[in-house]
């Protein structure tokens, strides 16, 4: 029996995708072997790769002047790739919005290669809100501005796209494909796969073509977007199974009605949970209302001595991975695309029952 899985990542995958993979595992396309056991250069795999790219382009309406790259090294690899690829032309300076723990990691890595200016930060209130639009200014001559539209640990999500006159770089690891985006507003969008795309082991970058010639001269080959773009993301052996599964997720997303449908679902699911939290004295959300993430909802119990009990009873009730990030404690429910509305209904019902018994 599959349980409801609220893990922040690697996260729940759509059941039909897992079933299809299971069905095809031993004998893929009548080839007598699995998709993992064929050459990445075989016509069969190249078709999978191309279809995945096209489906992702369709889902996010990616303009033709953007490369879609399938990469390795996770989003963390892109923390390094971004400065390596963008600080080699005129400017060694990059602007960052500091919104929490993932932004902090991107900042720390970029500092190894250039001058980092933190132009906005929500550190003063423990990253519990999104720095307001218009409350900050970009610095002069920055090669790019980097931000994290959704902070997976802190549970805050931007409801606006920063307007800047340098390339905008976004780490969309935990909210990509959860709503329509205007790709043209961005120079680079990247994401690790293991939340809304597919299994871990693959990362995606959308890179505007004119940014491909700004790399530092000694860039490691495996981090170069230009090398990846020129080789169709196959400069070396790609993670073929993760690519194939991501492709199945894209097909599933299309069948569900695409990112518009996902946005509607995400709003419904997160509203159900947040309204419940706000109505309760037993549970609360540490995040300011207007900044709450639709994807990751951290919450705490008024009495943290009940945390352990809560988690063990939740697990027995078939609700998995509600423990908050090890750095912040408490609880966190991640509500990615593959988490159905019924899962949130079950969660809220369990929480109400727990409160009635322990409150
Ligand atoms: N950025 C964000 C917003 C994330 O949530 C994560 C992973 N949870 C990362 C970056 C790092 O991703 P990876 O583990 O793929 O390197």
Automatic annotation (TrEMBL):
It comes from Microbulbifer echini. It comes from the Bacteria. Catalyzes the reversible conversion of 3-phosphohydroxypyruvate to phosphoserine and of 3-hydroxy-2-oxo-4-phosphonooxybutanoate to phosphohydroxythreonine. The modification N6-(pyridoxal phosphate)lysine is found at residue 195. Its EC number is 2.6.1.52. It is found in: Cytoplasm. InterPro entries: Aminotrans_V_dom, Aminotrans_V_PyrdxlP_BS, Pser_aminoTfrase, PyrdxlP-dep_Trfase, PyrdxlP-dep_Trfase_major, PyrdxlP-dep_Trfase_small. Keywords: Amino-acid biosynthesis, Aminotransferase, Cytoplasm, Pyridoxal phosphate, Pyridoxine biosynthesis, Serine biosynthesis, Transferase. It catalyses: 4-(phosphooxy)-L-threonine + 2-oxoglutarate = (R)-3-hydroxy-2-oxo-4-phosphooxybutanoate + L-glutamate; O-phospho-L-serine + 2-oxoglutarate = 3-phosphooxypyruvate + L-glutamate. This is Phosphoserine aminotransferase. The keyword Chloroplast does not apply. Pyridoxal 5'-phosphate binds at residues 75-76, 102, 152, 171, 194, 236-237. Residues 4-347 form the Aminotransferase class V domain. Homodimer. Its cofactor is pyridoxal 5'-phosphate. Pathway: Amino-acid biosynthesis; L-serine biosynthesis; L-serine from 3-phospho-D-glycerate: step 2/3; Cofactor biosynthesis; pyridoxine 5'-phosphate biosynthesis; pyridoxine 5'-phosphate from D-erythrose 4-phosphate: step 3/5. L-glutamate binds at residue 41. Gene3D superfamilies: Aspartate Aminotransferase, domain 1 (3.90.1150.10), Type I PLP-dependent aspartate aminotransferase-like (Major domain) (3.40.640.10). SUPFAM superfamilies: PLP-dependent transferases. One of its GO terms (molecular function) is O-phospho-L-serine:2-oxoglutarate aminotransferase activity. Belongs to the class-V pyridoxal-phosphate-dependent aminotransferase family. SerC subfamily. Binds 1 pyridoxal phosphate per subunit.
